[in-house]
Amino acid sequence: MTAAATVAPGSGHLLLRRYRTGGLILGTFLLAIAALVVTGLTMGRARLLETVLSTKILATVVLVSLAVALAWIAVIIRTWLLARPARLTIGRKVLGTAVVALLCLIVAAPFAFAANVANSQRNLLNALFPGRGGTSAAEALNKPRLNILLLGSDAGPDRAGTRTDTMMVASIDTRTAKTILFSLPRNIQRAQFPPGSAMAEEFPRGFHDARAPLSGDYLLNAVYAYAHANPDVAPAVPTDDPGINLLSSTVSYMLGLPLDYYLEVDMAGFAAIIDAVGGVTINVGPTPLPIGGVLPDGRHVKPDGYIQPGVQELDGETALWFARSRRNSDDYDRMGRQRCLLQAVLDQKSPADLLTNFQDVAAAATRNIRTNIPQAVLPKLVSLAGDAQINLQSVAFDPSLSDPNEPDGRFDTARPDVEYMRAVVNAAIEGRPLATSAPTTSAKAGHTPGRSAPLAPQTSAPAQPSSAGPVPVADSCAPDTP
Question: How many beta carbons lie within 10 A of that of residue 167, not counting itself?
Fold first, then answer.
């Protein structure tokens, strides 16, 4: 009878002919099961994800899980006390009590797991999304587009200081979920700042030092560090980090896009998150990719190893090197690999993968991710994708991008044309060719798989900013084959 109460609460009471109490308990249990089944069948994926992104709902899940577990345990114990035979020996009483305790643990375990995961998710949301700075949730929920600055910093055990070697802006259409990644190379020179700002007055011709024209301290990826060394030149908003604020101001100005939020991941965090979700499958390409082999001063040494060619299952460390390897490749190759890796993770990892390794994901994210996206905006961002894959397109401001204003017809990172950059951004967002009277330029010229397709200004047969749709993992990450 006690075992029956463990399987279906109230059934033990019915066997004991306590029909009223047993019927009430069992009826409540069956109604709860029916409600869960109906909810599971009718709740879409987007609605489910919205639910797990609400700290209030998660707190309710914790309390309900604990309450149901305690009530079920109470029914088991009560059934045992009612059904226990009289005049049991001490040994049998001890054995019976031990069996009942085991039954209670069997019931409590799944509810304890659910409560723990819900509470961990709630703590993760509170830690990662404090919502300080950036566009207010009320305004963001009604905007046609949200623009999020994505940063990958080079903070790591082998680096001194912090630079933002990966810089992208994800521009998201809040109606269609179409997302365009605008990638900015770390080696962009003479970065521009909003007129009237302290940096515009200090660097009227762009972020540059004429006394050291080859200095890496005046590239776009050094803006973050410059602000930390000179916090007075950085805007006071939207965050309390001068590096984020100054970098946001220059990226926003050059692209002509208002930035709503930022999200920053450091190298260690990137590797930990890939490990937490079980790795990622990538087509490395036809040649091995060196691990290390380049010192901070640019000198080449023997690599520590290689990522083998072809389709490989990468763990966090090797995925990190896939994204940052500099030996035998340039910054633009790295940018292409980074975008490819981002798409691969989005394509391959499901909510089930996150749930299976949730504690590791939560720990890695809390330690290594910073953002000012408010919690209230998360459900909208998640619900945009619905039951479909996220539709990513990309435009990279590197020499693979055609620029009719340059002598060689290629975008020049040493002298970025801000007006042209804005025109490219507008054309990509509006889904139209870039109007120009320049001679026709082939959209295929300079294109490498894994990079964005160039947005070539044309008078006929205009090129699009990039090919639409998710990029297949098997094809998108390999460099050109012979």
Answer: 24
Report pLDDT for 194: 95
The CA-atom distances, in angstroms, between 479 and each of 180, 286, 332, 333 are: 22, 7, 12, 8
For helices 358-368 and 90-128, what crossing angle results, to 10°? Answer: 30
| CA gap 305, 289 in Å, rounded | 9
Residue 284 φ/ψ, nearest 5 degrees = -70, -30
Q: Which two tokens stand for residue 59?
A: 């707190």
145-185+227-396 falls under which CATH superfamily? Answer: LCP protein (3.40.630.190)
Q: How do beta strands 261-266 and 145-153 pair?
A: parallel
Got the DSSP string for 270-287? HHHHHHHTT-EEEE--SS
CA end-to-end span of the chain: 73
Strand-pairing partners, residue 167, are 151, 184
pLDDT of residue 268: 67
Question: Does pLDDT of 313 surpass 60?
Answer: yes
Rounded to an integer, the average pLDDT of 216-221 is 89
What would the pLDDT profile of 106-122 be if each residue is shown by its tens digit? 999 999 999 998 998 88
Residue 59 phi/psi, 5-degree rounding, is -65, -40
Map out the domains of the chain as residue ranges.
2-128, 145-185+227-396
CB-based burial label for 305 (10 Å; 0-12, 13-18, 19+) = middle
Distance of CA 398 to the CA centre of its chain: 24
pTM score: 0.72
Mean pLDDT of the chain: 81
Phi and psi dihedrals of 153, rounded to 5? -90, 155
More confident residue, 472 or 221: 221
